[in-house]
Automatic annotation (TrEMBL):
Purpose: Hydrolyzes the pyrophosphate bond of UDP-2,3-diacylglucosamine to yield 2,3-diacylglucosamine 1-phosphate (lipid X) and UMP by catalyzing the attack of water at the alpha-P atom. Involved in the biosynthesis of lipid A, a phosphorylated glycolipid that anchors the lipopolysaccharide to the outer membrane of the cell.
Binding site for substrate: 102-103, 150, 188, 192, 224
HAMAP family linked: LpxH
Pathway assigned in UniProt: Glycolipid biosynthesis; lipid IV(A) biosynthesis; lipid IV(A) from (3R)-3-hydroxytetradecanoyl-[acyl-carrier-protein] and UDP-N-acetyl-alpha-D-glucosamine: step 4/6
Entry annotated with the keyword Glycosyltransferase: no
PANTHER family given in the database record: UDP-2,3-DIACYLGLUCOSAMINE HYDROLASE, UDP-2,3-DIACYLGLUCOSAMINE HYDROLASE-RELATED
Species in which this protein is naturally found: Brachymonas denitrificans DSM 15123
InterPro entries: Calcineurin-like_PHP, LpxH-like, Metallo-depent_PP-like, UDP-diacylglucosamine_Hdrlase
Official protein name in the record: UDP-2,3-diacylglucosamine hydrolase
Catalytic activity, as annotated: UDP-2-N,3-O-bis[(3R)-3-hydroxytetradecanoyl]-alpha-D-glucosamine + H2O = 2-N,3-O-bis[(3R)-3-hydroxytetradecanoyl]-alpha-D-glucosaminyl 1-phosphate + UMP + 2 H(+)
Gene symbol of the encoding locus: lpxH
Residues that bind Mn(2+) 2: 61, 102, 142, 224
Binding site for Mn(2+) 1: 31, 33, 61, 226
Enzyme class, broadest EC rank: hydrolase
Keyword Nucleotidyltransferase among record annotations: no
Amino acid sequence: MSDLPPPTAPEAAVSHVLAPTAWRCADFVSDLHLQQDDATWRAFARYLEQTPADAVFLLGDIFEVWVGDDITGAAGHDFERDVARTLRAASERRALYFMHGNRDFLVGAAFCAEAGMTLLHDPCVLEWPLAAGSSERILLSHGDALCIDDVQYMKFRAQVRQPAWQQALLQQPLEQRLALARQLRAQSESRKNELGVEGYADVDAPLACRWLQERGCHTLVHGHTHKPAEHVLDGTQTPALRRLVLSDWEAARLPARGDVLRWCPESAQPWERLQMAAPNA
Ligand SMILES: [Mn+2]
């Protein structure tokens, strides 16, 4: 078992990104839930090839499930290898950043290195120098850590984010980890059916405001809830505290879902929401 990658040490993740002054645009994407070569994967691969952004921030649940970085060397897992290769090719043209979601929290340093991505801590501040010496500070998160009303999930999260728990899991044979993942997914599916989309806890607004204020930010970008929107969290502040919520991706649905949030501070409309998963996008 000595050839297994070590679980991601928290110190390996970056909690502050300073954008180089040469950058013009950054894209934010989350909740692709990739699991096989399908329309969503093809739409995302095409997007990666075509985006003009200087940096792409993948904000969690890029994979439907991840049971360990050794998957890309395992027989029968060509898809994960393809994803790694495609990401690496994209990383040679622009900076790629990856943050864990609640499904792919086991993505480790080895996969990030293979795919050419920098691992981000959740949350992470993106500091973007503007003209006249000022800068924009954008707070990035997957979003699950802010859904504190879901007490059952928060307990699960606290457990599975422990390095010791992850280490023990990663020492199990791959087949056993895949079986456990199937079991967890079945449980989560049955819970989803019980609660319905609206039954899920949403981001806790006071906590989100605190996160923003503690880090000198006024815009939070997150995914996880699959409720794409723009919310004012506190309009009494100047500028107002707000959160921009990403969509999940489902290219085979009608209408297709697959938002990219694009930040181009020099443009007249600095924030733009693009639909990338439509067949003719
Ligand atoms: Mn999620």
